[in-house]
Amino acid sequence: LFSLSLSLSLNPPSLPSYHSLSVPSSSSKVYWLHNTFSVLYLIITIVVMSVFARQLKNRKMKRSSHTLMITQLPTGVTDSQMQTHFRECYPGADVVDVQFAYNIHKLKICDDARKKALLGYERSVEISKLTGKPHMTAVGFLKHCPCVQATEVNGEEYYLQKVRDLCIECNRQRDQTRSDRLDVAFVTLSDSAVTEEVVNCYRPGKEAHVSKISDQIHSGRWSVKLAPVPENIRWSQLSVGFFLWYARFFVLNALLCAFLFFFTTPLVITSSLGDLKEAD
Known about the structure:
Elements: H1 2-10, H2 29-58, E1 63-71, H3 79-89, E2 95-102, H4 105-131, E3 136-139, E4 151-154, H5 155-177, E5 181-189, H6 192-201, H7 214-217, E6 223-228, H8 242-264, H9 267-279
Antiparallel strand pairs: 1-5, 1-6, 2-5, 3-4
Helix pairs in contact: 1-2, 4-5
């Protein structure tokens, strides 16, 4: 915001259309203040990125030694088919458990809202006990806007009813989740050596073992790796598809590059670029 306000003050709208940026005198205090902020933002960005990169390097993903995470799995595959496939392909494999992943994205949002409403109810009860009178809370879409007079209601009754409604919605979303399976499964084997063998079979350049039902379960298309420990998995994000994830990746990085260019590039460089364009 500081950089934007300074840029607008240095580049008033009254400038001719062919002149993209004004070139103020180097003695201008505003000019040097803008350059100071630009360099400061650049230094802060470099420091933050270096610290973040160091944390990523030192942090090792904890993975299970007995559980496989299988993706690109047809949603119609059953537990018995998975066990049959592994018994035929890997004679020493003893399948302990097979768990399929489900789309819990909407359920997670609803449950988070329920927890937030429950905290609001507990806070209202606590305030009512301290003040000796019912706690009133503002409701409405524009309740935080000072120019709009929000409606106030009894906080305990409002949040209690909200918790009840969200519990009903969570139960409804839970029922829908059971019929919305993802292409992800977690297969636990008893022997860690067999687990590692399965992972090696699905590395690039190698051919995976086949069974009599490989065509039915499309085992040749699977992506297999050691599963992270449960606490390192964001279960609500498993529903994000491959293309959507990369689309978010490129859009966010493009926005970041644009932000860094326009808010950290010193004005003297952009002014020089404008002069070069005018000279051409």
